[in-house]
Amino acid sequence: MSFNNLDMLYRQVIMDHYKNPRNRGVIEDGVTIDLNNPTCGDSLRLQLQVEDGIVKDAKFEGEGCSISLASASMMTQIVKGKSVDEALQLANIFSQMVQGKDYDTDTFDLGDIEALSGVSKFPARIKCATLAWKALEKGVDEEA
Amino acid sequence: MIDASIRKQFPILDQEINGHPLVYLDSAASSQKPLAVIEAIEDYYRRIHSNVHRGVHTLGTHATDAYEGARERVRSFINASVPEEIIFTRGTTTAINLVASSYGDANVSAGDEIVLTPMEHHANLIPWQQLAKRTGAKLRYVEMTPDGRITLDAVREVLSDRTKIVAMSHVSNVLGTINPIAEVAKLAHEKGAVMVVDAAQSVPHRKLDVQALDCDFLAFSGHKMLGPTGIGVLYGKKQLLKNMEPVEFGGEMIDYVDLYESTWKDIPYRFEAGTPIIAGAVGLAAAIDFLEDLGLENVEAHERALVTYAIEQMRTIEGIEIFGPEERVGLVTFNLNDVHAHDLATVLDMQGVAVRAGHHCAQPLMRLLKQSSTARASFYLYNTRDEVDRFIEGLRQTKEYFNYEF
Lengths: 144, 406
Known about the structure:
The structure holds two protein chains of two kinds.
Chain A: H1 4-9, H2 12-19, E1 31-37, E2 42-51, E3 54-63, H3 66-79, H4 84-98, H5 126-143
Antiparallel strand pairs in A: 1-2, 2-3
Helix pairs in contact in A: 2-3, 3-5, 4-5
Chain B: E1 16-17, E2 20-21, E3 23-24, H1 35-48, H2 58-78, E4 86-89, H3 92-107, E5 113-116, H4 126-135, E6 138-141, H5 152-158, E7 163-169, H6 181-190, E8 194-198, H7 210-213, E9 217-221, E10 232-236, H8 238-242, E11 254-257, E12 262-264, H9 278-294, H10 296-314, E13 320-323, E14 331-336, H11 341-349, E15 353-354, E16 356-358, H12 363-368, E17 374-378, H13 385-404
Parallel strand pairs in B: 3-15, 5-6, 5-7, 7-8, 8-9
Antiparallel strand pairs in B: 1-2, 4-10, 9-10, 11-12, 13-14, 14-17, 16-17
Helix pairs in contact in B: 1-9, 2-9, 3-4, 10-13
């Protein structure tokens, strides 16, 4: 059986982040955001350390499918060191990308997160991919 | 015997999904509809529709006859004693909320107890949580056996003289467990409590008799039993319903209206405020006709054969964990180790196989099973042994995909 479409969704880089997540853990004095995906039972705890408008550190813990955990891993990787404004811009770009809309590829080096563009072909899975980014938006909002 | 020719009655099944013939294994979430139901609704709108219970004109009489005919059809289907015991609601959730708000608020007070099980669907859990919060009553949970059953001893353990309500699903939507409702109702009555049954997963699949169960309230949904969405049923014993206050107010449910005071109609109309779900009731009646023509005992036997075969085949795949007891209805909840249920469901979907993945609206049960998410395949009268084979092949492909592609 051919799984060409599936390979768009489960690309090697995604499975790598799923099996070897980056930034999994806790930050002692960070702001904590707990988000659930009530339709499926995924739960995510994101912790952020923001100083002088810069995301100094980001870590996550939680349970979820390969897409939601890989997305959390990639998100924490890319936002570290970015300003809050840049992090929010990235969240917006990511949201456009996974919905299959045109997205800005010039402002940032998107790196691994572009691997998740295949999610746009699987509408039922978009919420899995955006969970970590929703937590990020909520977190920087609380910090601000 | 039910054979594959029945599938011709279900036009939706004849389609390809992602390049493969659809294998629909999510009927426990919502069943598909036979032509007889689709056509009954269409015919109602083409020839019969008007508002009910008020028109002097002939069409009003036709619509009222269709609606009240559906009520009688439901009555005989579940063997209620009189049609007034049948209240049409939007579904199981609305029906249980009605009992919790009306009967519950009037009969439950601080310190009283409401008995539930850990396997309840959120629809038969949260209305009681809210009632407990409003009244100061306590929730008590019957302990489940490790394989997901409820024993009468465990029920006795939590019943007390303060028990006012026992609310239990007839069949678990996750485990497929069939609960001993008649026996539990007897225990509840000995303590002076009422028995509320969530029958959403049993009425579509097996013959049910509310008088034999001797339950006080019983709720189910049309859409899980070949009927349309937006229609459900609350059965209640006449003696109880007669003394209950409505929870929604407006047209259709009133007797006499004054500027400052009004009085209510008799049951069941008191609980059906506004223009009722007429077309939904007509569709539900057609669904009941369809099920009774087939014979519920045949439906049950067909599903049992499918689920038995499916589980037998699943056990040959290493790494599959199956939840729930041996004795079960036609559904199986499971996980494939190292593959999250979502990923599993997506890969099956790419092979045309539709299963449910998630917490199945039973979060407390998921935590008890120590699973954040599970997959569920549920069978109905239109599923076939060939489809079980497709499902099993899909599971093998999924396992291979996640083991070797990366």
